[in-house]
Specification:
MFS_dom; transmembrane helix; about 500 residues; Growth Hormone, Chain: A; mainly alpha; MFS; membrane; Permease of the major facilitator superfamily
Amino acid sequence: MAVEEDDVAPLNPVQEEDEAMRAFAGERGEVQDLDEATNARLLKIIDRNMLPLLCTIYGLNFLDKTTLSYASVMGLQSDIGLTGDQYQWLGSIFYFGYLAVEYPSSRLLQKYPLAKYSSLNIILWGATLACFAAVKDFRGAAVVRFFLGVFEAVVTPGFALFTSQWYTKHEQASRTGIWFGFNGVAMIIGGVLAYGIAKGTQGQVTAIEPWRLLFLVTGCFTVVIGLLFLYYMPDNQWNVRFLTPEDRILAVQRIRQNQQGIGNKRFKMSQFKEALLDPMTWAFAFFACAGNIPNGGITNFFSQIIKNSGYTAEESLLYSAPGGAVQAISLIVSGFLSDRYHQRVYVSCIGLAIGLLGAVLLAALPLSNSIGRLMAFYLTQASPTAFVALLSFISTNVAGSTKKTTVAAIYMIAYCVGNILGPQTFRPKDAPRYIPAEITICCCWGACLVDMLVIRYWYQARNAGKEKLRLDPDYQKVPLSEFKDLTDLENPELVYVL
């Protein structure tokens, strides 16, 4: 497939400018280049002040999802009288809430101050999680899980916007890998915390059941961190506490190479239509759905997978922790290698292939092979590298504020659909082996590998088409195109990361 000049959309001279352009006009009226030392100094300041909060919140985001899995082997199902497939539906209902608000939430991220809107949702999700400690039956648990999904829907697309706003395109894969990698850290902490609560209360008479205490502790801690996020996290470079007025301007200048500016609050129908018509949007969506059918199943059933392999309930909590280490290391290493070698797809596919190997082993090994199945489970935890790579593609390769939020919303909607379907593959009648679910995981991840390679080929072809256009003797670069809120198809200067 060749990409000709006509595949690059024509520039629109009346496009509304980016927030950065208007800010520069008020501050100094011109944009200057940074030297390497200044750029490195700013990067260290930004990393030091922003990454810890992004990592902590994203880790809590995953911990709050997996708390249900820990609780499933701590007495939750018998205490609230779950029967049949009700536990499966508790896993899926979370994503119905997520799905219901994903696009409106993404639009609100564009319209309102990014950090403040994110903080509100973080605080509300923490309070909602704590409320799970009070549920008495399936109906109450389902309501809490639904609203938990509603409030958590803002986190991933919001963090992708933070990353694209503050980091250059060759820094974004590593930073996304770091904050997403705290899913693994949360898995370690969650497993140890759940094990500690389960063992500490074993044989003891307690005021509340151990699993209720787990929800209460994690929910209240999330509220505290959400308040800290509200106070400290900046909406953009213009209201940041940790930079001087001069450095705020330089922080915008350093991301000029992204050809994306720092955002525009106006909804543009032309960008919305372009997002819907861009084949890459749907290639992303296919991956998000197919890749998260396994995620939805494993996230809600990993404690039971380990327990059914011959371990006690307490051991299943503790032995889940190394899986978190595999996930964190895979994501961080994949992110740094992607940025270093500028080969995001190929590097991320290594982790996905390792995860696929683990899924094949889970499907092949008998329950009696406890150690082998546990090792296979650990291998599956390397699989998120490709999902994170595509998430970072939305930051680097999708331009135009409305288009970016639309593509991010579609990506996360597909993510929800996959996670809704995932728990349904773990049917009670298939327990304890869950062979159909394990085969489904293998098929989904295999299809995702093919999809990743198609995406890379398509972007490579588009880059060739843009290069041909730029080499045309009649081509004229639009001045300050990086701050005019152009889409990736409208801007020939934007080169896709591969």
